[in-house]
UniProtKB/TrEMBL annotation:
It comes from the Bacteria. CDD domains: Peptidase_M90_mtfA (cd20169). It comes from Rhodoferax saidenbachensis. Signal peptide: none annotated. GO terms for cellular component: cytosol. One of its GO terms (molecular function) is aminopeptidase activity. Gene3D superfamilies: Collagenase (Catalytic Domain), Glucose-regulated metallo-peptidase M90, N-terminal domain. This is Zinc-dependent peptidase. It holds the Pfam family Peptidase_M90.
Amino acid sequence: MPLLVLTLLAALFAVWLLGQPYWLARKRAAIAAQPFPDAWRDILRRRVPYVRAMPADLQLQLKKHIQVFIAEKAFLGCAGQVITDEVRVTIAAQACLLLLNRPAHYYPGLRQILVYPGSFVVPRAHTDSAGVAHSGRDVLAGESWAHGQVVLSWQDALEGAATVDDGRNVVIHEFAHQLDQETGSANGAPVLSRTEHYARWAAVLQAEFEALQHSTEQHEETLFDAYGATEPAEFFAVVSEVFFEQPQRMATEHPALYQELAQFYRLDPQSW
């Protein structure tokens, strides 16, 4: 192939590549500009009461995010689960809470949400410190995979949406993992808005993580689920649940941690 043709093709590819963000932004703007369906409003009213407590501007922002999220992400039913608008809207509403007031990249690594009717079983394999291989099964309500999938129990997603103040929400938990995984593997250090924020983020979350580990070892009651003591990635997901569902208590008992999450999520849920 002549050099001129190769050069032209390379130039065209570069123009296409550079134009992708522009055309994606235009496409998303067109989707968000469409009226929010009345049937979807009814689903939010019945299934996601959390939304009613939010300021009007955030409710509007959330609805636009829901429209784009549903347009871009595939929902797949597993083990007989039927995917309806009720499933899509209920899950999307909770997932999009984490996008409010932030650059809305819509979980760029995520392609599919797999939905089971209830808890599902995942096989596990690990090797212990002695080099012995073990296999087993975990029963889960949700899981976030780095290769483009989130798996959810519909029953748990419904219960998490219905009870807005218990600090437990499987959709928020798994989509916090998705934010964390934007940097690669989940490690409790998602992408922050400014480089200089990382030092304080690491110091505050590490101190709180170690405090939860200590409390868990002593069998003490804490605001945070003991599962958050297993590793930093789970700690970030667990405290994200509490940030959205029990913000007043978190701000009182863990003010530095609340401040870090409020800065990251660009929200102050205790004011709603």
